[in-house]
Input
Amino acid sequence: MTKMQAGAIVSTLAVFAALTVVFMFLPLEAEMLESQKIFYFHVSFAFTMFLACIVTAVAGGYYLARGCELADAVAGASAEAAFLFASIVLLTGMFWARSSWNVWWNWEPRLTSMLALWAIYAGYLLFRANARGEARRRLASVYGIAACVMVPIVYYSIKLWGGLMHPREGTIFDMEVSMQVGLLISFAAVLCVYAALMALRARIETAERRLESLWQNEGRG
Amino acid sequence: MKHTLAQFSRLFYKDLSLQWRSRGAMAVALLFSLTAVMLFALVYGPFFSPPELPMEARRRELAKLASSIYWTAAAFAGVVAIYRSAEADREAGGIKAVRMDADGSVIYAARMCALSVMLCLTQLALGLLTAAFFDISWLTLGDVLRLIGVGAAASVGLGAVGALMGAMAASMRGGEGLLSAGMLPLQLPLLMAASKCAAPIWASEPIQEKAWIALLVAYALIMSAVGLLLFEVVLED
Output
């Protein structure tokens, strides 16, 4: 069994365990009932997305400082995960809002800033997909560092501008213990998915690069 | 230091002349804002806010509309101006020639300042158009100065992002097509903050949510710092 296969199996098991705990063992919340279950995955994906944005910037910075190609592959893979997770956060948020407040969308600061972050990482992926060679790595690294500025804006948006749907940061510590455990398990599961996706994507990127250099050498020969 | 300042002023003058030569961008932005106002006017018309509303409520409604249309047009003007600057770099290979004699951060600072000045001028013209079409006649000198302050801070931020993204687009084949896709999302926080800061000023009211001013200034400064630090990397071959 390869490391990739082991990673895929571990992350699948972790997601299965999280789903089982959330849907089978955790009590129903009195007001929101079943729809509150979305919270465990919505919040876990949101935190993992923040982590993915930071990893993109740090790996991009490392590539610019040291020229390490693996760091660039990690940055690209992490940005893809950040975009995917941001999409999941927006979608799960919409379903939760619909079932709890009877609206699909509301232009409160957290949602608006989150949409801006999603658009920024879409821009990153477009830039990365359209540049070639060394310029692609360099420019994507610069974009990834600039894009990371959005993370604290999204995180502190409720504190700065208030909001109707989201609680202020730190509310997690005031929750019931069972909910905290559920959140911790789903967060661990989403982290496993992130690690597996990132490793797989970074490996594909490295393989593509090798193939590209082989083609170039073949062309010269 | 003296040498750097001389380089900066030379480059600033060059970039400003280039921007001025492509001032058609300003006319395009004015036409765009005219189209936006016309469409809104048709849907809302014949008055933007119902005349039966109390004067204060009418002012607020008009100010919100004015601020959103104004900043949409300003963002469009920015894209056109920066697109032109990236195109000039690509066509004439201008940035490569300039690089032989100046440091990346000096080139960036000059370009950012030239873009900001041009965006400020465009915004001034847009502001006059907005005031005329929305029949905003209650602004005091203080309000006008506050609007100029918001516009200047936003122009610095838009110029900071634009100078960096313009150079990035110019160094890619077909990059101009990607310029707005890459640049507009990075400018969104600035545009959000500027429109939220400007809306109460258009209504001649104080800005209640000071965090928007903080975001506007902080984002402009951070993006300028990111550009100054990383522009050299963008220019590398």
